[in-house]
Specification:
Layout: H1 3-20, H2 24-32, H3 67-101, H4 112-122, H5 131-148, H6 159-181
């Protein structure tokens, strides 16, 4: 799964959750079919000692809500809102990662100069000047493997998948050479 598809899935989930926020009555009716959930539990209310409160504390009377409305207002809606907020926060985090590393999914379409400019824009204090030369070589390597593996896996996978495959191949070759030496 790519980052873009994960973001689309999260956006879809967020829209779904937002659409369910106003369907409390539907879920209440469905819950009534479950044994021993047909009534709301009554909670005992306590009154505060007026002498301990300042004169202007809680001048407004509490709203007289039914148990159903109390649960909706104090339970269902806050949970749905928190879920939407958490999904939004996750989407922002994914978008931040995509803005910094999303170019890696389109590496084979970029030339080395544009790639270097993109990297310098994000990591200007961290990159060495020799990186531009290395990127020219890396893009050439990618194009070479692209022609060799066109029908197998490279045409349908991202650059990150390709790098994982190549690293694991190198790792297995190094492991074999260490075993032969022993």
């Amino acid at each position: 799964m790519t980052l873009e598809s994960a973001m689309h899935t999260l956006k879809s989930l967020k829209l779904f959750v937002e659409s369910k926020r106003d369907e409390f009555d539907k879920y209440e009716e469905a819950a009534k079919g479950i044994p021993s959930t047909d009534q709301y539990v009554q909670s005992r209310t306590s009154t505060r000692n007026v002498r301990l409160d300042p004169l202007d504390y809680m001048k407004a009377q509490d709203a007289n809500l039914s148990p159903k409305d109390k649960f909706k207002v104090s339970g269902f809606i806050p949970v749905m809102d928190q879920l939407c907020d958490s999904l939004t926060e996750r989407l922002h985090a994914y978008d931040d990662v995509r803005s910094k590393f999303g170019f890696l999914n389109h590496l084979e379409e970029m030339d080395a100069a544009n790639l270097y400019a993109e990297l310098v824009e994000v990591y200007e204090d961290d990159l060495e000047p020799s990186l531009s030369i290395e990127l020219v070589q890396f893009v050439s390597l990618m194009n070479l493997y692209k022609t060799d593996y066109k029908k197998t896996y490279l045409s349908s996978c991202s650059i990150i998948k390709f790098l994982k495959i190549k690293i694991s191949e190198l790792h297995s070759q190094t492991s074999k050479s260490h075993c032969e030496c022993a």
